[in-house]
Amino acid sequence: MEISDLVAGKVVDVPDFPKPGILFKDLMPLFADGPAFGAVIEAIIAEHGADGFDVVAGIEARGFVIAAAVAYATGKGVVPVRKAGKLPRATVSASYALEYGEAVLEVHEDAFAAGERVLVVDDVLATGGTAAATLGLVERAGGQVSGFSVILELGFLGGRSRIAPRPVHALLTVS
Ligand code: AMP
User: Fold this and answer.
1) For 114-163, what is each residue's pLDDT tens digit?
2) DSSP character for 103?
3) Mean pLDDT calculated for residue range 61-74
4) Does the CB atom of residue 125 touch ligand 1 within 6 A?
5) What pTM did the predictor assign?
6) Distance 79 CA to ligand 1 centre (A)
7) What is the mean pLDDT of residues 19-28?
8) Ligand 1: distance of its center to the CA of 130 in Å?
9) Residues 6+ apart with CB under 8 A from 70
């Protein structure tokens, strides 16, 4: 089965969550299915190459699940990109607009060695605000973004253009 079909079959649309008018794409059934989750992780690794990155950054919170699996499978480490106030040491931070709100993301200022190649992962690319903030944070913290993968891209929200010219790799794009 194509990976895009596998993802499509496991996404559950939840209308009006967390706010009226938002169609939430719930990937929990995908995470809960061992073979499907494994196929998704392998597809992300295949896209970037196991030697194409030095560390994996995951965006809180569902990105952590993906980042940890990709990192473990390739023998790399994980760096969490967290919501405001969660990290205990000095951070760099960025505020940004969400599809459904406003938020601040932070990463430890010493999270990356200079020039370290960072693969950034998250579950869903919506408006691209989260991704744009995260990619900027990685660079400000000294990392070099070597790739960005999501499981699902909501193409109609134009998130891809927010992070251009950096590419986005999506296992499934819905329009
Ligand atoms: P955005 O900054 O608009 O691209 O939003 C991306 C972040 O918010 C990701 O971390 C997603 O987990 C979450 N998100 C935004 N919109 C949705 C949606 N419709 N369904 C599921 N998650 C979403």
Assistant:
1) 999 999 999 999 999 999 999 999 999 999 999 999 999 999 999 999 99
2) E
3) 98
4) yes
5) 0.97
6) 20
7) 95
8) 8
9) 41, 44, 45, 56, 76, 119, 121
Pick the CATH number of 3-174 from 3.40.50.2020, 3.40.50.300, 2.60.40.730, 3.40.50.720: 3.40.50.2020
Centre of ligand 1 from the C-alpha of residue 124, in Å: 5
The residue-averaged pLDDT of 37-41 equals 98
Containing 124, the helix (H) or strand (E) segment is strand 117-125
Q: Which atom of ligand 1 is nearest to the CA of 128?
A: 4
User: Does 152 sit in the ligand 1 pocket, CB within 6 Å?
Assistant: no
Domain boundaries, the chain: 3-174
143 lines ligand 1 (CB under 6 A): no
- Which atom of ligand 1 lies closest to the CA of 127? 3
According to the model, what pLDDT value does residue 80 have? 98
**pLDDT at position 8 over 90:** yes
Q: What is the mean pLDDT of the chain?
A: 96
Query: Which residues are marked as active site?
Result: 62, 99
Question: For residue 4, which phi and psi values (nearest 5 degrees)?
Answer: -65, -40
Q: Best mutation site among 99, 148, 172 for ligand 1, i.e. most ligand atoms within 8 A of its Cβ?
A: 99
Burial class from Cβ neighbours inside 10 Å (0-12, 13-18, 19+) for residue 125 reads: buried
Q: In sequence order, which ranges of 3-106 are alpha helices (DSSP H)?
A: 3-10, 28-32, 34-48, 62-74
Residue 85, pLDDT score: 97
